[in-house]
Amino acid sequence: MSTDSQPGRPPYRPATVAVTSGRPPHEPDNPLNEPLTMASTFVAGGEVEYGRYGNPTWAAFEQALGDLEGGRCLAFASGLAAVATILDLVGNGARVVAPRHAYNGSLLQLADLEARGRAHAQLVDVTDTEAVAKACDDAALVWLESPTNPALEVADIPAIAEAAHEAGAYVVVDNTFATPLLQQPLSLGADVVVHSATKFIAGHSDVLMGAVATADDQLYDVLKKRRDMIGATPGTLEAWLALRGLRTLHVRLERAQANAQELVRRLGEHPAIGEVRYPGFGAIVSVVLEQGALAADLLTHKTKLWVHATSLGGVESTFERRRRWKTEPATIPEGLVRLSVGIEDVDDLWDDLATALDDLTG
Ligand SMILES: Cc1ncc(COP(=O)(O)O)c(C=O)c1O
C-alpha cells in the first residue's frame, strides 16, 4: 500500500515512495533532485516570506517522510528540538505518561518540566500494556518509544492508543529505531510520530535533524506554528542531506537488519555475553556483558572495526556502554552495550567483535 500523497501518482510501495517522493515534477530541464535553496528571505507576497516559516528543500524532505509515515511532516533542527516542541504543548500541571526506559534526552526534558512544575511525568514499563492503560487516566499525553532506547522494549501501540484516546490523551510515538519502513505508528493509532532524523533516516552520521508527522491537520498547524515561533527549524543543507539519506533507507535498513539478525545469533552463543536484547526487527541490538561495566568498557575500546561512539543508525557500526552516561536510568544494566549495526560485511563485524570478546573470557 502506498503512502505517497502526491496527486496523480500510482499507489507506490514504501521503497518506491522513498526514492520518488519529494522530487520536482518530471518536466523538461527540471533537476531530478530538489536543489538546495539557501535563503533567509523570499520575495514578499507568496506563501513562505521568511526562512523560518519554510524552505523548498525542507518541503521536499517533509513530503517524502510524510508520505512514508502516512501523514504531514515537519522538519526540525534536531530530534530533541522536535521533542521539546511537542512537550511544550502540554498544559500547566498536565500528566504525561512516558517509558521508564527511553532516550535519556527525552527523559531529561520531562524531568525538567517536572522540576519547573510544568508537568507531572509518570514513568511506566511500556511492555506492561495493562499498567500503561491504567496510567492513561487523567493523562494529557502518552509518550511512547518503541522499541525503547537502549532496552529495546516494544509497546503494544494499538492497545495503548485505544486506552489513551478513551482517557482523552494524545499519543506520541518516537519511531527513531523502527523507521517508517518497519512501523507506521499513525496507522497503529498514534496522533504524532517523532523522529531523530539524525539516525537511520539521514543514515550517514553527518547530520543533526528531527521531524514530526501527523495525520491531524489541526495538530499539524499547532506544531508548525510552534516550530516557526521558536525557530526550531533545520538548516537547508541538513534537510538536503537527510533527504538524500532517506532515498536509500530501505536498502541500508535491509542490509543492516540482516547483519543484526546474524550477529544476534552469534552473540547469543558467546560465553562473555549474559543477555542479548533484540526486538526481532531493526538494526539496534543491546547485549549485557556477564562481567559487568568493566568488561563492557574494555570491549568498546578493544575493537578495530566497531567504532566507540554514541548515536546510531549510520552505515558504519558503532557501539557504547550506555551507563557511561550519568543521565542514563539506573535500571539499565551497568554492563549493557548498545550496538548500532551497520552495512559492512557481517563476517568482518563478527571477527572484530569475537576477537575482543574472546580476549575478555581469556
Ligand atoms: C530514540 C531517540 N529519540 C530522540 C533522540 C534525539 O535526537 P537528536 O540527537 O537528533 O536531537 C535520540 C538521540 O539519540 C534518540 O535515540
Outline the fold blueprint.
Blueprint (H helix, E strand, L loop, with lengths): L13 H7 L35 H14 L2 E5 L2 H9 L6 E6 L4 H12 L3 E6 L4 H7 L3 E7 L11 H10 L3 E5 L4 H4 L9 E5 L13 E5 L2 H14 L5 H11 L2 H19 L5 E5 L6 E6 L2 H11 L4 E2 L9 E4 L14 E5 L5 H16 L1
Parallel strand pairs: 2-3, 2-4, 4-5, 5-6, 10-11
Antiparallel strand pairs: 1-7, 6-7, 8-9, 9-12, 11-12
Helix pairs in contact: 1-2, 2-9, 3-4, 5-6, 10-12, 11-12
Gist?
The chain is α/β, with parallel strands linked by helices. Helices cover 37% and strands 17% of the residues. Helix 2 (56-69) runs parallel beside helix 9 (236-246).
Characterise the protein shown here.
Helix 3 (79-87) runs parallel beside helix 4 (104-115), helix 10 (249-267) packs parallel to helix 12 (346-361) and helix 11 packs across helix 12 (346-361). The chain is globular and about 70 Å long. The protein has 12 helices and 12 strands. It has helices at residues 14-20, 56-69, 79-87, 104-115, 129-135, 157-166, 179-182, 217-230, 236-246, 249-267, 292-302, 346-361; strands spanning 72-76, 94-99, 119-124, 139-145, 170-174, 192-196, 210-214, 273-277, 284-289, 307-308, 318-321, 336-340. A 7-stranded mixed β-sheet has the order 1-7-6-5-4-2-3, with helices on both faces. It has a 5-stranded mixed β-sheet with strand order 8-9-12-11-10, with helices on one face. The chain is of the alpha/beta class and 362 residues long. Helices cover 37% and strands 17% of the residues. It binds pyridoxal-5'-phosphate. Residues 78-80, 103, 105-106, 145, 149, 174, 176, 196, 198, 208, 210, 311 line the site of pyridoxal-5'-phosphate.
